[in-house]
Design goal:
Blueprint lengths: L2 H6 L3 H6 L8 H13 L4 H9 L14 H7 L4 H9 L14 H7 L3 H9 L14 H7 L3 H9 L14 H7 L3 H9 L14 H8 L2 H9 L14 H8 L2 H9 L14 H5 L6 H9 L14 H7 L4 H9 L14 H8 L2 H9 L14 H5 L6 H9 L14 H7 L4 H9 L14 H5 L6 H9 L14 H5 L7 H9 L14 H7 L4 H9 L14 H7 L4 H9 L14 H8 L2 H9 L14 H7 L4 H9 L14 H6 L5 H9 L14 H6 L5 H9 L14 H7 L4 H9 L14 H7 L4 H9 L14 H5 L6 H9 L14 H6 L5 H9 L31 H7 L4 H9 L14 H7 L4 H9 L14 H7 L3 H9 L14 H12 L4 H4 L8 E5 L5 E5 H22 L4 H13 L4 H11 L2 H8 L2 H5 L1 H12 L2 H10 L11 H10 L7 E5 L4 E5 H18 L14 H13 L6 H6 L4 H10 L7
Antiparallel strand pairs: 1-2, 3-4
Helix pairs in contact: 5-6, 5-7, 7-8, 7-9, 9-10, 9-11, 11-12, 11-13, 13-14, 13-15, 15-16, 19-20, 19-21, 21-22, 25-26, 31-33, 33-34, 33-35, 35-36, 35-37, 37-38, 43-44, 43-45, 45-46, 51-52, 51-53, 53-54, 53-55, 55-56, 56-57, 59-67, 61-62, 67-70
């Protein structure tokens, strides 16, 4: 029976008989004592183990002592008392400065907490992250412990390093009793973290309606936002609790609030496991379902990355989400769905028109995405069947096979890809083959054998000269069987990577079995090979996962124990990095030089301390003659090196007691105190160093004291207080004349630190070398009015000026500062007429508010360019600033606002105040052209809605954003929803032209044109000609009327196109003349009702059918009634033309063919205008029957109509041909 079974069975008599515990290695001792605590053994067993050689001050690999481990495992109080009685260090701190009291509070052990406090532990002692015991207790839902701690003086308002209060932790765990108790005790309910999260944010993240209701009843700010502009609704939507979401909205939370990334609550609701009920509710409350983030992500993108159901995806698409919308990385919803490998969703998206061929900016196909995550054979088979190229490459030259081998490799998937022609030796731009990537993963031996059996090049090298055998050892410890297989297949055992590492180097790095190392050397691996840094395999074996057995074997084979790397490091230095006492002892016994130095002057002892070696290692090295006061090349002693790595107080005490020079400085003038203050240190360490005589006012070469360092690093307020209380010079200045207070503002530190230094008498008006006071610098941190009021109340000079004569008001104007702050500064006497050396003045509250700079810019220009708050703009305009003032370049403030992509509210406000939106700069730029250049579609739309002049746009300024915005603004009016109403496909809709002229256009032609608008316009715009003013008018005319102006086509083509095309194009003029003849033909069809009905019967459609085809059927069924056979008026640019209802439908399809023809080269232009009446009859027959009538004439015209026929076939599934 082994010792663990004895302990588990609590067999005390047998345990007493065991004699070799003290001889066991440290790791084994730790394992035994941990096991005992986990089993909650009685005190007697712990007593026996301690008496038999388990050291009372033993520490585990996480640097926890036995008391930490015992409390963590909720050991009986008697064991805790015993350990303390035996002299264990009760004040010892875990690696993150966590004490045993913190552990006890975390475990709700009130009996242990009482005992520890009775032994003198500070109830408010803080961890490295400034958490006290109360933070831990409040998170664990124990009102009893929380109450006990507060009653004994625990600081209820204490904040962590991240600004969290005790209430934040309680809300995180939904402990309503603890929350109520804390609020009754006066805790600040509106306290915020450093990220500006309130406790309500935390409660919404935890989804407790009871806690949320209670907090709101208590007056918490429901619209508070984090630094990322996230509201509590954003947080709640991630959890998708309809009850919480409804309650928050009913209470007035802003449903349309957006984060800094432009994410709405709807985006957040689609992130995890989205709910249709939640989405429906948010939409019903007016949220924009089509909103996009800064990355152009729609809610469909988010949903396809989440755990959304197929029903949810269907719901989003039914609401009009663009299925092919792309992110800034060109990723579609289908890419994300393929990554999640949901065949149902993928199939549905493709069925609904998702473009399966779309590639991302990285040139990745949907197949790449399908192979990236946990691939599905069903999905991959589906995508390949649909035509995705199995060997398509990303911009990194990665194929789907690379992805499949790198991410969760599956034998079935990889075998399938190879069977479909995947290139097994394809190389990425870094020359990785699939075999390289596969060898990085574990448990893939069968797949490796598959690739090699299929011809994978076993010795192919990457751009770093690594073979598959190198890669096999990169992240794994491969079995001897796998290595033998590679060698048997011809793998080069001595191949060197670009750093000269051999497979033997990498094998020694992975702590393999000694048999593996023996096998490699037996097969010819060079034992004396060195890496590019001159590291031997012994260096690797000593540093990475060291094995005493392997090191002994290597030395027995004659490897040099004294060899040095290019940096002068010996295997002993490397062993000290890994902190293995057994290996260090063995190397020293074998003759390793304990005082050997690296090129930087580091001995083994320096290295051991620098890498946090155990006390056992340190004491051993010193016992063997290592010099504790030896200095490195940059004058650092061991205490300096230790101080850079968050040392424990115990470590520092040990070195100081050994006589190390506490005030020694390194090359940059830093003392140990400077280095300690750079870390997240604790007060007890600072106090100890000062008690031992360290110079608290020592300065670096940059004249920085420890206080300067603490104020610009991660130190807490507690450390700053400690330094001040211990006598640091609070007004000391750096070489740039910065005080500690300046540095707090420059590094955006919490206000409580600033307030503390001011209360302690720091010079609030001290100036830097740039003549900046803290009042100047405060505006870099977006201060509140309260902060500015506090500084001025404490004596900050409002009249102070910087080097360039900048006043504090100048500094304020450079940020989005509240008008209340500006008003307050003016009230306090800031000179609003003062000018900088560049003649910039701030005239917000002066009579001469329209003063200008030497560039003729007003302050309003300056504010609009810096994208400031709309409140400041409103304030300036209300004071009479000239909104139409122009600079030397003829730029108005609207130009500046459009150039800086200001918010659309600012643009709308400026226009509402009468700014001239058509002013041109000296460079001929307008507000519209600037917005098009910036691709700001929202501002383009605002300008178009306000009748901006579009006729002065240059050729290179017609961009997609302009066309899209134009169509969106003008193409359809508020009757857009009626356009899609299938119950009434024959009503007229009113369209407003750009000149304000209103006219009616039939719904049929709008629907048909709307479906193909982009295609028609793009063909015409891209292929026909470069755009001129007249050409834009022509396009607009077509957009408004749905009817091309043939005379304008002729005029344009005469100007722009070659002679051959011009001659053919002129023939289109006669097409207009033949309208009346076409009407006659249609009239004959109208008079033959039975024949038309027979047409439909032949293709299986009954007149009574009410589905999809009802638009045509309804028209035909009413066509024979006298009151339904009226003509319809279409308005062209110069005339009114009457056209029968039916021809609206037919002609709209003919127009498509006609436009496509015009956009082709001259020899492809069809002579539509010369077609005979008979050919038109046959064309109409074709449109209704999808075939030509069989007769002699048709054989002559079939070729003529071939292109139109092809176009029709491609579009036959549109809403009018189903």
């Amino acid at each position: 029976m082994n010792i663990f079974e004895i302990i588990s069975n609590k067999e005390i008599s047998k345990l007493k008989e065991i004699k070799n515990i003290s001889e066991k290695e440290t790791k084994e001792k730790i394992k035994i004592i941990k096991f005992s605590f986990q089993k909650k053994v009685p005190k007697e067993i712990i007593e026996i183990l301690i008496s038999k050689g388990i050291p009372i001050n033993l520490k585990d690999e996480k640097r926890r002592n036995l008391l930490h481990i015992a409390i963590k495992n909720k050991t009986e109080i008697e064991v805790i008392e015993y350990l303390i009685e035996k002299g264990i260090d009760i004040n010892f701190k875990y690696i993150n400065a966590k004490t045993v009291l913190h552990f006890a509070c975390e475990n709700n052990s009130i009996q242990v907490i009482e005992y520890l406090i009775s032994k003198g532990l500070d109830i408010n002692t803080k961890t490295m992250y400034s958490r006290i015991g109360l933070h831990f207790a409040s998170k664990e839902n124990s009102k009893e412990v929380v109450k006990y701690l507060i009653e004994r003086g625990s600081d209820i308002n204490s904040k962590t390093f991240y600004g969290q209060t005790v209430l934040h932790f309680a809300c995180q765990k939904n402990s309503i009793q603890v929350i109520k108790y804390l609020i009754e005790k006066g805790i600040d309910i509106n306290a915020k973290t450093n990220q500006n999260e309130t406790v309500l944010h935390y409660a919404c993240q935890s989804n407790s309606i009871e806690v949320i209701k209670y907090l709101i009843e208590k007056g918490i700010d429901i619209n508070a936002k984090t630094n990322q502009n996230e509201t509590v609704l954003h947080y709640a939507c991630q959890k998708n609790s309809i009850e919480v979401i409804k309650y928050l909205i009913e209470k007035g939370v802003d449903i349309n609030a957006k984060t800094n990334q432009n994410e709405t609550a709807l985006h957040f609701a689609c992130k995890s496991t989205p709910s249709i009920e939640v989405i429906e509710y948010l939409i019903s409350k007016g949220i924009n379902i089509k909103a996009k983030t800064n990355q152009n992500e729609t809610v469909l993108h988010f949903a396809c990355q989440s755990k959304a159901s197929l029903e949810f995806i269907k719901y989003l698409i039914s609401k009009g989400i663009d299925i092919n919308a792309k992110t800034n990385s060109n990723q579609t919803a289908l890419h994300f769905a393929c990554y999640k490998n949901s065949i149902e969703i993928i199939d549905y998206l493709i069925e609904k028109g998702a473009d399966i061929k779309e590639k991302t900016n990285q040139n990745e196909t949907v197949l790449h995405f399908a192979c990236r995550n946990i691939p599905s054979i069903e999905v991959i088979d589906y995508l390949i069947y649909e035509g995705i190229d199995v060997n398509a490459k990303s911009i990194w030259n990665q194929t789907a096979l690379h992805y499949a081998c790198e991410n969760n490799p599956s034998l079935e998937i990889i075998e399938y890809l190879i069977s479909k022609g995947a290139d097994i030796n394809a190389k990425t731009i870094y020359t990785h083959t699939p075999l390289h990537l596969l060898c990085q993963n574990q448990s893939v031996f069968e797949i490796i054998k598959l690739l090699i059996s299929k011809g994978a090049d076993i010795n192919a090298k990457t751009d770093r000269d690594q073979t598959a055998l190198h890669y096999l050892h990169r992240n794994n410890n491969p079995s001897l069987e796998v290595i033998e297989y590679f060698i048997s297949k011809g793998a080069d055992i001595n191949a060197k990577a670009n750093q000269n590492e051999t497979v033997l180097h990498l094998a020694c790095q992975r702590n393999p079995s000694v048999e593996t190392i023996q096998y490699l050397i037996k097969k010819g691996a060079d034992i004396n090979a060195t890496s590019g840094m001159n590291e031997t395999v012994l260096h690797f074996a000593c540093r990475y996962n060291p094995s005493l057995e392997i090191i002994k074997y290597l030395i027995s084979q004659g490897i040099d124990i004294h060899s040095q790397t290019n940096y002068g490091e010996t295997p002993l230095h490397y062993a000290c990095i890994s902190s293995s006492i057994e290996i260090i002892k063995f190397l020293v016994e074998e003759g390793a030089d304990i005082n050997a130095k690296t090129n930087r002057g580091h001995t083994a002892l320096h290295t051991a301390y620098q890498f946090n070696s155990s006390r056992e290692v340190i004491e051993y090295l010193i016992s063997k003659g290592a010099d504790i006061n030896e200095k490195t090349n940059d004058n650092a002693n061991i205490l300096h090196l230790v101080s850079k790595n968050n040392p424990s107080l115990e470590t520092i005490k040990y070195l100081v007691e050994k006589g190390i020079d506490i005030n020694a400085k390194i090359s940059y003038g830093y003392t140990v105190l400077h280095l300690i203050c750079q870390q997240k240190t604790t007060r007890d360490i600072i106090e100890y160093l000062i008690s031992k005589g360290i110079d608290i006012n020592a300065k670096t070469n940059q004249n920085e004291t420890a206080l300067h360092i603490a104020c610009q690093s991660n130190s807490s307020l507690e450390i700053i207080k400690c330094l001040v209380e211990e006598g640091v010079d609070i007004n000391a200045k750096t070489y740039q004349n910065q005080t500690a207070l300046h540095l707090l503002f420059l590094t955006y530190k919490p206000f409580d630190m600033i307030k503390y230094l001011i209360e302690k008498g720091i010079d609030i008006n001290a100036k830097t070398s740039h003549n900046e006071t803290v009042l100047h610098l405060s505006f870099q941190n977006n201060p509140t009015l309260e902060t500015i009021e506090y500084l001025i109340e404490k004596g900050a000079d409002v009249h102070s000026k910087g080097n360039h004569n900048d006043s504090v008001l100048h500094y304020a104007c450079r940020r989005k500062i509240s008008p209340d702050i500006i008003k307050y500064l003016v009230e306090k006497g800031v000179d609003i007429n003062s000018k900088t050396n560049q003649k910039i003045s701030i005239l917000h509250y002066a009579s001469d508010i329209n003063a200008k700079t030497i560039q003729n810019e007003t302050v309003l220009h300056y504010v609009c360019l810096s994208n400031s708050s709309i409140s400041i703009i409103k304030l300036l305009i209300s004071k009479g600033i000239d909104i139409n003032a122009k600079t030397n370049q003829n730029e108005t403030v609207l130009h500046f606002a459009c150039r800086s992509n200001s918010s659309f509210e600012i643009i709308e406000y400026l226009i509402s105040k009468g700014i001239d939106i058509n002013v041109k700069t000296n460079q001929n730029e307008t507000a519209l052209s600037i917005s098009i250049k910036n691709s700001n579609e929202k501002i383009i739309q605002i300008l178009l809605q306000n009748e901006v002049d579009i006729y002065d746009l240059q050729e290179n300024e017609i961009k997609k954003e302009f066309i899209d915005s134009f169509i969106q603004i003008y193409s359809l009016n508020h009757d857009f929803n009626n356009l899609l109403n299938s119950e009434d496909n024959f009503s007229d809709l009113e369209i407003k032209s750009i000149d304000g002229f209103k006219f009616k256009v039939h719904k049929l032609i709008l629907l048909t044109r709307f479906d193909n608008n982009n295609l028609i316009l793009q063909k015409f715009i891209d292929n026909c000609y470069h755009k001129t003013k007249e050409e834009i008018k022509f396009i607009i005319n077509f957009i408004y009327t749905g009817f091309p102006d043939f005379e304008k086509i002729i005029e344009i083509l005469n100007q722009q196109m070659n002679k051959n095309l011009k001659e053919n194009a002129n023939q289109y003029y006669w097409g207009v003349r033949e309208f009346e003849e076409e009407k006659r033909i249609l009239k004959e069809i109208e008079e033959n009702e039975n024949k038309i009905k027979e047409f439909f019967k032949e293709i299986g459609i009954e007149i009574e059918n009410k589905k999809r085809r009802k638009g045509i059927i309804k028209d035909l069924s009413k066509l024979y009634k006298e009151n339904e056979t009226k003509d319809f008026i279409i308005i062209s640019e110069e005339k009114e033309i009457k056209v029968h209802k039916l021809i609206l439908f037919t002609r709209s399809e003919l127009f498509k063919g006609m436009f496509l023809s015009v956009s082709d080269t001259s020899n492809q232009v069809h002579d539509y205008s010369r077609k005979s009446n008979e050919s038109i009859q046959q064309l109409i027959y074709f449109l209704y029957h999808d075939k030509f009538e069989e007769n002699e004439f048709n054989s002559k015209i079939i070729e003529e109509f071939e292109e139109l026929k092809d176009f029709y076939q491609l579009n036959k599934n549109s809403k009018f041909f189903i």
